[in-house]
Every structure is written in C-alpha cells, then in structure tokens.
Amino acid sequence: MMIEFTADELHHVEALKAKYPDSKAAIMPVLWMAQKKWGWLSEDVMQYVGSVMNLPYAHVKGVATFYTMYFKKPMGKHHVQVCTNVSCMLRGGTEIFQAVKERLGCENNSATADGTFSLEEVECMGACGGAPMIAINETFHENVTMEKVNALLDSLR
Ligand code: FES
C-alpha cells in the first residue's frame, strides 16, 4: 500500500501547519488525518507523517504513543467506545462495557478476528447528560440500554 496523502490532503496539512505559531503543533491533527485515512498508525505511516511535518520519527511516535486515541494497531471497521466514567458508570456503563465485550468476544483495545468491530473502554466523552453513552466511530449514542446497543451492533454487521 502506497502511503502518501493526496494533493488535497497535503494542502490541508499545510493549512494546519500555518494555523499554529509553531507548525510542529499541527502534529496532532495531522496524525488524526493519517489515522482516518489508513485506519491506524503503523510505523510506515508515522515515518511518513514525520516526513511531511519535518519532524523526527521519534517525536511522531512519542505523540502517537502518549494519546490513546491514536491506534498503534489495526482496529475494527466499527470502533465501539464505551464510557465507564462516573456518570455513565452510575447508569450502567460498566455492565454495558462487559456485555459488549462478551458479545464481540474481544478484549479492550482490540478488534474482532474478522476486523468488523473493535472495542475500547473510555473516560468521560463529555456527554454525561446522556449517560450511559457509547460512540461508534464518530457518532455518539446516548441514553443507551443493552437492547439499544445490541440493535445498533446488529445493524452494523
Ligand atoms: S461520564 Fe460518560 S460521558 Fe461523561
């Protein structure tokens, strides 16, 4: 697989760099772009991001390693995040996490064998008013019950 941003994406990278007083600060959104494009941050992807950002690989890897939102291994097509922080926990978030884990048959921070789903237990996602909540890729689902979660997972098979 060729690891390269398109011309449009490179324009976007330049625009991001120009947005910050120190262009290095654009590393976070650029890593995010890379993750969206390639699904996860392999060593080759991080090398490439380093080259477009003029940053050493060690720096890129340091940032990617520090933040859990950057995947260091392949995740599923549908990445399921279940919040188990206080507000969600008090309304059943932990049980939902356990049930999803059993249903998918995969561990926290890993993907199902067929690559359809992956699971991540997360800290507060700022949607406490709708606790308990889960997110599937970038879509939030609030006030969920296990029935609603099951229906959602069924619809994504
Ligand atoms: S505690 Fe779950 S979204 Fe805030």
Structural features, described:
This protein is an alpha+beta fold and 157 residues long. It has two domains: 7-66, Arc Repressor Mutant, subunit A; 78-156, Glutaredoxin (3-Layer(aba) Sandwich). Helices cover 47% and strands 13% of the residues. The protein is built from seven helices and five strands. A five-stranded mixed beta sheet has the order 2-3-1-4-5, covered by helices on one side. It is elongated, with a radius of gyration of 17 Å. The two termini are 26 Å apart. The mean pLDDT is 96. The chain binds FE2/S2 (inorganic) cluster. The site of FE2/S2 (inorganic) cluster (FES) has 11 residues, from helix 5.
Mean pLDDT: 96
**What is CATH's topology name of the largest domain?**
Glutaredoxin
Instruction: Give the radius of gyration.
Output: 17 Å
CATH class of the largest domain: Alpha Beta
Show unreliable segments.
none
What class would the helix/strand composition place it in? alpha+beta
- How many beta-strand segments? 5
Q: Provide the domain count.
A: 2
User: Order of strands across the biggest sheet?
Assistant: 2-3-1-4-5
Distance between the termini: 26 Å
